[in-house]
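Predict the holo structure. Ligand: flavin mononucleotide.
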Amino acid sequence: MLLDLLKKRYSCRQFSQRKIDPKTIDYILECGRLSPSGGNEQPWKFGVITDPAIIQQIAQAASVNVPQKWIATAPLIIVLCTQLFDCANDELGLHRFPSVHEQLQHMDRALYSIVNMEEHQTKIPGEHMVLAALEQGVYSTWISSVDCEKVGELLGLKGYLATNVLAFGYPEKNRSVTSKKGKDSILFFNHFT
Ligand SMILES: Cc1cc2nc3c(=O)[nH]c(=O)nc-3n(C[C@H](O)[C@H](O)[C@H](O)COP(=O)(O)O)c2cc1C
């Protein structure tokens, strides 16, 4: 059951040296591939990184604000990359926020593209992969605190923006799950309360 799986999930920040076998990696990627996307455009590439030297460099790129050396313990990193496209005629974005329509139209297009793309799209295949991995006993952590431009340079990205990094592996030690807010504080029914 999905709920049983979700009750086991936590962000793992120290992985054992055990490698993830290629079949399991392929299963994780296949579950990401089947993700929904706006207009089924699938505007992404997923960088599958198993080379320890590159993983080490990604760990450094993620240690600019706070040290995140633990990332280097991951045997697998998946870099979620969103396709950059010209948002000049982004009617959907403009319609979604009519009260700031005017400002959006005059916003620098390169800036608008990055802000518009960063949060959408790749989060969904990313979470598919996180859950597929967990089903196979592989834990993970989402990483946003990372120099996305540096990661793009490291991987030689062209026309794509590295938006998030996912670190995968087997936990060095199990820990208890992180507590969550109760339903009473996060839901409302029909009208906001
Ligand atoms: C989009 C996103 C970005 C995150 N970025 C980081 C990060 O840069 N570094 C980190 O250690 N954890 C990161 N996390 C993990 C969160 O800190 C973690 O999900 C949260 O504390 C709840 O804990 P849990 O995942 O164990 O339930 C991120 C999580 C999400 C969803």
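The chain has nine helices and four strands. The mean pLDDT is 92.
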